[in-house]
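Q: Fold this one first, please.
A: Sequence and structure below.
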Amino acid sequence: MIDSVLRRRLVGLLLPVFLLGVLCLAACSLGGPQSHVPTAAEILQRATNVLNVNNPTSAQGANSATVQDLTYTMKLTVNMNMSDSALGAQKLNETMTAKGEETLKPRRAQMDMTMALADAALPQAVNLTDTVIVDYASQTGYIKMSGGMLPGADSGKWYKMSFASVGGLGADTSMYVDYSKLKDAKLIGSETINGVAVWHLRAKEDLNQAVPGSALAGSGSTTGANSSVSGTATLDYYFRQDNYRPVKIVMASNETMSGLGTATTTGEMDFTAFNTGVSIALPPASEVSPLQF
């Protein structure tokens, strides 16, 4: 009788401890809660190890996540309030959608773009469909146009352009994939996109490093003889938590163009594939003409 009472008391005392141990073991076997949430700086460093446009051979370990090429879609909207002493006040609205691909060795980008420029003074929007190739090693751009044409340009012909000009058209992706340009990066939190766990970061970038999509911005601050672009863009980055490849980038900016007016830009870049064997060839020199505008 006494033994049975003691056994029951021992079971009553030890059972909670036993159950707690079982729960701990189960949590460990399932991975349990994440012990360390990386900082924004750690996330950017790991993302740079995976996608490094400045030194693509420096990725630590050269693991399977290291980016060699990528494809993406992009959309941008630019609203400009122009104030020119000669032309007067104008409101210009530009929209651009694009599909693109990029290689890191050599670093080249190719975009198929569709743009529409609306102005109250125009009877209808000016539409431009073009293919743009950017060669970063030579800081050169190439464009082939159809639809609404630039002065002096022929449809279907390749034209050589300055790096600043193709950047102004939105074909330079540096603002999105060169993480070394970012400032004040902060971790917003953990989210899920299309069933994939991502880290959400928010950072800023100076617009005098070029604003993709702005019809007046270049690869530096100078956009004209007496004008410059200034301001700051806010960028929201979404990186996969498992391999730190980018998933999506959202951009919003307000810029001031001295002597010309102001503009606001919103955009989004969505990454669709990595390491599919993309190859981007430059147009043959015999098929390229210079373009001045």
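Q: Good. Now the second chain.
A: Here it is, same layout.
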Amino acid sequence: MNLRYKSNPHLDRLEKILNIQPDKAAPTPAYFFPDVLGSASMLAAVIFTPVIIWSLFKLKRYGWLISFVLTVLLPAGIIRYASVDWWLWPALYTVPLLFLVIFHFVLRQVIHDWRDPIFTNAPGSDYK
């Protein structure tokens, strides 16, 4: 049985953004400068976050939106208004970025299950 999926532009865009791998495009610089690659990956995660949030909203995945607010935005807001020494701020700002990367990783793992299949040659299907 050949399984086909219904097209969904929001899901396609979200999947394309989450599956970007900069080390595949330029493997030699990634080998020589892994710290730059890590920084570029975090910058890309921050830049593409509004698009990801908009796609989750259009897909009506409100649980993922709530988990984004609780795991990324809430710690960032708490750290922003925490009264700590100025030299500790860069270390504390890596915590929301780490949560953002973990959020993107988990989202990338489960996005494949969101596609609606079109069953062909199944009893009772309307497909001709």
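Q: Anything worth noting on the second one?
A: The longest strand covers residues 4-5.
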